Amino acid sequence: MSAVPLIKQKVEFKQPKSWHGREVRVVVIGAGGNGSEVIDSLAAFHHAMICLGRSGGLHVTVIDDSKVREPNLVRQRFWPCDLGQYKSVVLANRYNLQLGLSWEGLPCRFPSVETEAAMSKADIVISAVDLPSARVAIADYKGRLKRDAMWLDLGNGHRHGQAVFGALAPAMRAEYPCVLDVYPEVRHLQDDTRKSCSTAEALASQDCLVNRTITTAGLSALWEVLRYGATDKHWIVIDLKTGMQSAHSFPPI
């Protein structure tokens, strides 16, 4: 008797029913090159959702304890008037004033006592951090989380980067692997805490449009969930030098 081949089923992340009829709560960790682009895109998502009749839109909490410096003004969404202010507070206030929102900026480190409440309510956590240790801290977070909380991680180098959309809650990682499942070597990487001292150095480390490109690619998965109810986008890789972009689906089951 011949063996019957096993047919694996395509995996999608479907918008939880608990998101319906209320604001979707998003926590953004990091408000620099990628993070500031994320906040700008989320403001557009919120406005679009309201226009489409989606009650509540988005509620966003931004976590970052760093202040705006002169080298940040080229490839981050800050301007000279923002110098010396906390990035998280600047971004939250900007869109609160423009759109009449009540988004929150927390000028503190993650994890901390100040971030616990936001994390416990988060439907989606978006990490836009440079340090491997910060990704490990998110993956190993021991605080209270929603069972179906998701995690979108954005990372990049000079002219390349990747976005990984997976589960934050450990119970769902077998079905929706997180960034540390895709890149397990992150746990063993050393942090580079050097900061650019000039605009030229900032552009030498990360090109002008790399943050916007990576953020747009990564947030496309979130927009599909919000607008169309589901996405199979798990892992997206971009190389600006070659112009290549590749997308990978969740592992079939």
TrEMBL record:
<dbReference type="GO" id="GO:0008641">
    <property type="term" value="F:ubiquitin-like modifier activating enzyme activity"/>
</dbReference>
<dbReference type="InterPro" id="IPR035985">
    <property type="entry name" value="Ubiquitin-activating_enz"/>
</dbReference>
<dbReference type="InterPro" id="IPR000594">
    <property type="entry name" value="ThiF_NAD_FAD-bd"/>
</dbReference>
<dbReference type="Pfam" id="PF00899">
    <property type="entry name" value="ThiF"/>
</dbReference>
<protein>
    <submittedName>
        <fullName>PRTRC system ThiF family protein</fullName>
    </submittedName>
</protein>
<dbReference type="InterPro" id="IPR022500">
    <property type="entry name" value="PRTRC_ThiF"/>
</dbReference>
<feature type="domain" description="THIF-type NAD/FAD binding fold">
    <location>
        <begin position="22"/>
        <end position="203"/>
    </location>
</feature>
